[in-house]
Design a protein that fits this description.
Rossmann fold; 7-stranded mixed β-sheet
């Protein structure tokens, strides 16, 4: 029997799978660290700021931030990722397994970071709004929320429908499409050790206008937008990323 994972909470199984980490292991860590450094230069956090790394995975970037002296909390829904990350805990760094749809701490964080398209996974916009509202509650009055998402309009216009990618001994067959509900679906099939696996990522193709609505409903406003990891100006037609800096109304 094939191992199919297409349910609403697809991310719980997929993010816990070793194949997820295998497929994405070649993400450019140096580029990511430079992006974080540019953000910190832009944001100018106080030396002892409290930072939430929301959807932290195995905690790679939480650790990077903690080494700079910030007090960092990493949250992720993947039990395996959090168990791994907890090996690195210290007085500046703590990790917890948590579903971002649920409240965590109130009026606590100076900054909340959500890096590398770790949003838009839920079946309903009610859950997406609930998540943004929880982030708003977790921020101190002058806190900021930084959300790093893909530019959906450019992504859809240049969508690579079929791809074959070999990582180690595993050959991943990837198909992409946009469904009628406005989600980008990425079906990933492969075989290993005599078993067939079938996962489907499903991410809501939010636009800037969508985020403006979500933020405002949660009591946040978008203060700045960027279109790349170099923090270039966002352009709907040409930018690869949509990076938002949000703050509470009145900031």
């Amino acid at each position: 029997m094939p191992n199919r994972h297409t349910k609403a909470d697809w991310f719980k199984d997929w993010f816990n799978s070793p194949y997820y980490h295998q497929l994405y292991k070649n993400r450019d860590e140096e580029e990511a660290n430079k992006f974080i450094d540019r953000l910190l230069t832009e944001l100018k956090p106080a030396p002892a700021s409290c930072i939430l790394d929301l959807a932290c995975g195995k905690g790679r970037y939480s650790r990077y931030l903690a080494k700079k002296g910030y007090f960092v909390t990493g949250l992720d829904i993947s039990e395996e990722s959090i168990l791994y990350a907890q090996r690195f805990e210290n007085q500046h760094l703590a990790f917890f397994r948590h579903d971002m749809r649920l409240p965590f701490r109130i009026n606590y964080f100076d900054y909340v970071f959500n890096f590398f398209t770790s949003f838009g996974y839920f079946t309903t916009d009610k859950d997406h709004l609930k998540t943004i509202a929880n982030i708003a509650r977790g921020l101190r009055p002058d806190g900021k929320f930084i959300l790093d998402f893909f530019n959906s309009k450019k992504a859809i216009s240049g969508l690579l429908m079929n791809e074959i990618k070999q990582v180690g001994t595993v050959v991943f067959h990837i198909q992409r499409r946009v469904d009628e509900d406005g989600y980008i679906l990425k079906n990933i099939q492969f075989e290993d050790n005599g078993q067939h696996f079938d996962f489907t990522e499903r991410v809501r193709a939010f636009t800037l206008e969508d985020f403006e609505w979500l933020f405002s409903r949660a009591g946040l406003k978008i203060a700045k937008t960027f279109g790349s990891y170099q923090l270039e100006t966002f352009d709907e037609a040409t930018s690869d990323r949509l990076i938002l800096v949000g703050c509470k109304m009145g900031c």
